[in-house]
Structures are given as structure tokens and as C-alpha cells.
Automatic annotation (TrEMBL):
Protein name per UniProt: D-lactate dehydrogenase, LdhA
Location of the D-isomer specific 2-hydroxyacid dehydrogenase catalytic domain: 7-328
Domain of life per record: Bacteria
Molecular function terms, GO-annotated: D-lactate dehydrogenase (NAD+) activity; NAD binding
Alphabetical keyword list: NAD, Oxidoreductase
PANTHER family named in the record: 2-HYDROXYACID DEHYDROGENASE HOMOLOG 1-RELATED
Family: Belongs to the D-isomer specific 2-hydroxyacid dehydrogenase family.
Domain D-isomer specific 2-hydroxyacid dehydrogenase NAD-binding per the UniProt entry, residue ranges: 112-297
Keyword NAD: yes
Matching InterPro entries: D-isomer_2_OHA_DH_cat_dom, D-isomer_DH_NAD-bd, D-LDH-like, NAD(P)-bd_dom_sf
């Protein structure tokens, strides 16, 4: 068996090399992203592994079919950048890594929130300039707040545990009820009810697609005055301009955004030479009421190792048995 792994970053490489040695399976490491051009390199391999944020070109899957390759394994969880019709048409099976470290993302939600509640951005900027005054950066305490967790999948549930550990009053919403969360009596009946009753709303939902947002002008008007939004899920869950305006007007107290609706091509790029042409992002970056980070909630050694190795394990499972516990069933 011979595998090819695309878009490999420096921090993933050793995990892939170690896996290859331990499993005695050849894995060709490619740093280029998977495109209509780079797929050529997969000729002669049995399976393609990849991760990227840019959309996957449908031609890739026509070519995979032509080369007799019928499995693609993603090193991440999100599949929103794949042309599913092209996979179905070419009989290509798909796996992802549904759980590489829910705790990494859940911990980051609280990390960002704590930084915002204690005005860390403003305080660090002041201290960097040798201004050691306290005021006006008086903080708020998490233990006195109601945290609304939207989405109670693995990440949402890990977040609930952590927020409860801090003594926050936690409420939750999900279309699908988890028995443990149900038993604790945390569920409210609707997303609206969650938004109305939360001092902090933390989003752990997948993308809702087609311009469907959870946080927008209308829903913000229902939220508590002074509430905070934390998003470590998907950028398109929020109409960011509406959120920005609400913070600027004082309706909301701030936001922690590790994902952003227009992040592709910006996050994980070095634009320090002045190439950032996104006025809204620029405004948020300079505003101490916004903690903005470039989609790094997942970015821990444990998570990266799991992404690199679980994707390869799933590929082997697919090639040996024709399916995998991480296969995503594509709607025909
Ligand atoms: C995903 O796994 O889909 C993520 O959002 C994390 C990604 C940046 C690797």
C-alpha cells in the first residue's frame, strides 16, 4: 500500500514520518495543497490524504477516478470545502477526523473568554508601552455569568465541563439532545431562548450553510445588553458586521473570534507587510473588545498528532476493508 499526503505543514511532518515507520507503509509527503495540477503526483498511489482551507477543485476527483484512487482522507473535521457531487460521481469515499481533541477547542473558548473578561488585550498593550495603570480595565468574573453553549457535540460537551468547573451557570441548546446534558437539565428549548438568557454565548455548531447565521442584527437585538459572543466553530455562523456594530454601539461587550467568515487566504498567512485588505477585520484587530486569533483553537500538539495519524489509520481501514468508522456517508 502506498499513500500520498498533501498540504503537510512542518509541524505535522514528523508525526506522519513516525506513523509511516511504525506501520511500515510508504507515505509520500507533499507540502503543496491538493489542486487540479498537484493531483498528478498521486498517480500510482492507493489513497490521498489532505488538509486545506481552500476549496477542493472538482477536477481533482475526476483525476483520482482516472488514476483508480477511490478514497480521500481528510486530516481535519470540516468538509464544507469539498464538492460532494464530484466525489459521488467518481465513487470516491471520504473520511475525516471527527474527534482529534475536543478539549483543545473547548479550552480555547474559555481561554479567549477569560482574556476578554479581564481586558487582557488592552492591559498587555498598555504594559508593552510601560503604562502600568489599572483603570479603566476592570474585569468581570466568569463564576457570576450564565454561559450559553450552542451545540452539544463533543466540543460543546467538553466546553460545558470546563465552564462548570469555573462556577459559571451553564445552559445549552442543540437540536439533538445528549443524554448526559439532558440529565443535568441544561437544555433550553430554542436557540432564541439561549441567546436571550446568556451573558456569554459560545458557538460549537457546524456551518449552517446558505447564509444562515446564528448571530446577526435580529438575534443580537434579543440578546442581553453587555453579552459576549465566543466563536471557535465556523466563521459563517456570524454576520460579522452586525456583531461589530453591536459592540461599537455598546449593545454587546465584546467578542472572541477564532474563526471569521472571510478568513480563507488570510488566517495562517503572514500579511505583516501590509497586505491586509479587509477593513472589518482590521477594525476588529485594533479594537480591544475583540480577541481575534487565526483559527488556532485546534492547534495543539495532541490535536495535530491525532489529525496526522487518525487520517492515515482511516485510510488503511478503508483500503483494507472498504469502509472505516470515520467514513462520511455521502448522500446519493
Ligand atoms: C477543522 O478540523 O475542520 C478545523 O476547523 C480545524 C482546522 C483549522 C484544521
Amino acid at each position: 500500500m502506498k499513500l500520498i499526503d498533501y498540504g503537510v505543514r512542518e509541524d505535522e511532518m514528523q508525526y506522519i514520518k513516525d506513523w509511516s515507520k511504525e506501520n511500515d507503509i510508504e507515505v509520500k509527503i507533499v507540502t503543496d495543497l491538493l489542486t487540479a495540477e498537484t493531483i498528478e503526483a498521486a498517480k500510482g498511489y492507493d489513497g490521498v490524504v489532505a488538509y486545506q482551507q481552500l476549496p477542493y477543485d472538482p477536477i481533482i476527483f475526476d483525476k483520482m477516478n482516472e488514476y483508480g484512487i477511490h478514497v480521500i482522507s481528510l486530516r481535519n473535521v470540516g468538509t464544507d470545502n469539498l464538492p460532494m457531487d464530484a466525489l459521488i460521481k467518481n465513487n470516491i469515499r471520504l473520511t475525516n477526523v471527527p474527534s482529534y481533541s475536543p478539549e483543545a477547542i473547548a479550552e480555547y473558548s474559555v481561554t479567549g473568554l477569560m482574556a476578554l473578561l479581564r481586558n487582557m488585550k488592552s492591559m498587555i498593550r498598555k504594559v508593552d508601552n510601560h503604562d502600568f495603570r489599572w483603570a479603566p480595565d476592570i474585569g468581570r468574573e466568569l463564576n457570576s455569568l450564565t454561559v450559553g453553549v450552542a451545540g452539544t457535540g463533543r466540543i460543546g460537551r467538553a466546553a460545558i465541563k470546563i465552564y462548570q468547573g469555573f462556577g459559571a451557570n451553564v445552559i445549552a441548546y442543540d437540536k439533538f439532545h445528549n443524554p448526559d446534558i439532558e440529565k443535568q437539565g441544561l437544555y433550553v428549548d430554542s436557540l432564541d431562548e439561549l441567546l436571550k438568557n446568556s451573558d456569554v454565548v459560545t458557538l460549537h455548531l457546524p456551518s449552517l450553510g446558505k447564509g444562515n447565521t446564528v448571530i446577526n442584527e435580529e438575534t443580537i437585538s434579543e440578546m442581553k445588553n453587555g453579552a459576549i459572543v465566543v466563536n471557535t466553530g465556523r466563521g459563517d455562523l456570524i454576520k460579522t458586521k452586525d456583531l461589530y456594530d453591536a459592540v461599537e454601539s455598546g449593545k454587546l461587550d465584546g467578542a472572541v473570534l477564532d474563526v471569521y467568515e472571510n478568513e480563507v487566504g488570510i488566517f495562517n498567512s503572514d500579511l505583516s507587510n501590509g497586505e491586509l485588505n479587509d477593513e472589518l477585520l482590521k477594525a476588529m484587530v485594533s479594537n480591544p473588545k475583540f480577541i481575534i486569533t487565526p483559527h488556532i483553537a485546534f492547534y495543539t500538539t495532541r490535536a495535530v498528532k491525532n489529525m496526522a495519524t487518525i487520517s492515515l489509520d482511516s485510510m488503511v481501514e478503508e483500503l483494507e476493508t472498504g469502509t472505516s468508522k470515520n467514513e462520511i456517508k455521502l448522500a446519493k
